[in-house]
Amino acid sequence: MSKQVAVILSGCGVQDGSEIYETTLTLLRLDQLGIGYRCFAPDIGQHHVIDHRSGEVADGERRNVLVESARLARGEIEPLTELDADDFDAVILPGGFGAAKNLSNFAEAGADMVIQGDLVEALAAFHEDRKPIGLMCVAPVMVPRLLGPGIAVTIGHDPGVAGAISSMGGLHRTCSVEDIVVDFEHRVVTTPAYMLATRIGEAATGIFKLVDRIDELMDL
């Protein structure tokens, strides 16, 4: 496998970490295309833990983002501080509320959010080297803070999140669940995934398109 992609996770579970289907579909498509990948996550405490059956915060429970992300990566995962952009051709961030709670504090601060420092450093290196960057679900809301203003992204058509992107200097593009938005100038690819998906097949179509486009951009 000559091409290598870094996949950055934010925990395990849609409500407090990486969305499991989005992550699995991303890794599946990379494997189907013969693209190698390695997973990374910040070695930090989770914002909180959600009981995914009740949807309630599990008071008093504490978990680590790297340890939880290891569940998704079957143990094959490294701290985000060890991610070296020189070793990879592209990077992809699946969604889930971990992007808004662990990789950033968007869930609390909205457009005033702060991005987790290790993620800022890691993505800056990919962006400076003009290596493709893929983000899905709510993760694209971080783009204006991560990569700068004027970059076209999508989270689907949620007016609140789209408005936050615009207020930070980003360019939001309305998009269907099964499609992608590509900013060719900045080499950023985004798709709504479970911001809109009601079935795993809907999410798969957009996510596969995103990975396919990342694959094409790696050749340019």
Automatic annotation (TrEMBL):
Gene Ontology MF term list: lyase activity
Catalytic activity reported: glyoxal + H2O = glycolate + H(+)
Top-level taxon of the source organism: Bacteria
SUPFAM superfamilies reported in the protein's UniProt record: Class I glutamine amidotransferase-like (SSF52317)
Gene3D superfamilies: 3.40.50.880
Recorded coiled-coil stretches: none
Keywords, in A-Z order: Lyase
UniProt similarity note: Belongs to the peptidase C56 family.
Function according to Swiss-Prot or TrEMBL: Displays glyoxalase activity, catalyzing the conversion of glyoxal to glycolate.
PANTHER family (UniProt xref): ES1 PROTEIN HOMOLOG, MITOCHONDRIAL, GLYOXALASE ELBB
Name of protein: Glyoxalase
Organism of derivation: Halomonas stenophila
